[in-house]
């Protein structure tokens, strides 16, 4: 199915629910409507943004689907879904769909209408289960009236509630710098005195050089990193639209020491990847000046928040979070992921296989 229209679940003629396996297959007016919607939403995330999401960029699955709900001509709900083929080679009937860090909705009515139509889509495609992970701040749960314990949805017990650190970048640069921790200010100044220079990556070679550091650190510290082909595709996209993100590189005497990669989604800039070659400058701060430059950049392009992300599950999480906290971000919690079993017996069978695989 290249492009389809599904009647809205309720008989409301102004609602239009559409889906496509490739976002580029949507009519231009639909693409433009989605772009305007995502650029204005606090729920937006790089993993739910057509500028980045996809199997060839931030990772994904073999089968991807973009789903849109519009009210009149305005988008009010967007979901980028990935069909999980982990067991389908042996068990073709066990496909499920995940909406990573999404969907994105304008309000409670749009969220519930979109989810109802999304379930209809999943049933029509014989999927076993649907998992969602909307970036709804816990303080806003009542406003969104999400089906946390009713309507067939249930919390994913194996996943803990998620949180991040966010910084208000509507403040002045001087105020943000003053609010950094004492040690973070000291490290930024020390890097400047040592001659460390931060610049924005301008070529594919810049991205490739950073990837060598990034992948080496991933192997050393045993955390999952983006494959090279995906990273290069991400580089191609960023080089063609520099207001959507940037790679900020720390250098000393022309030698690359490390950097941080930031992506903008909605009104927020997200710290996605970071790595440093500490062996090239063992006693100098490498990431501090790069991240500070990225924060200033996010303010310059009109963002209102900077998201530092969680610490992941890799070794050294305490050190990572200590580093991030030094920049003055405040903790923000999100609701836990939710799951809907469309075919309960098959879903339970799938979960047994998944548990056995781990």
Describe the structure in your own words:
This protein is an alpha+beta fold and 358 residues long. The protein folds into two domains: 3-161 and 335-357, Aminopeptidase (3-Layer(aba) Sandwich); 164-333, Aminopeptidase (3-Layer(aba) Sandwich), CATH 3.40.630. The protein has ten helices and 16 strands. The chain has helices spanning 28-39, 108-124, 141-144, 173-178, 182-194, 204-221, 228-240, 287-300, 317-325, 344-357; strands at 3-6, 15-20, 63-71, 74-84, 96-99, 104-105, 129-132, 153-155, 162-168, 197-200, 245-252, 255-265, 268-276, 305-307, 330-334, 338-341. Strands 1, 2, 3, 4, 5, 6, 7, 8 and 16 form a nine-stranded mixed beta sheet that branches. Strands 10-11-12-13-14-9-15 form a seven-stranded mixed beta sheet.
SSE series: EEHEEEEHEHEEHHEHHEEEHEHEEH
Distance between the termini: 33 Å
**What is the CATH class of the largest domain?**
Alpha Beta
Please indicate the count of domains. 2
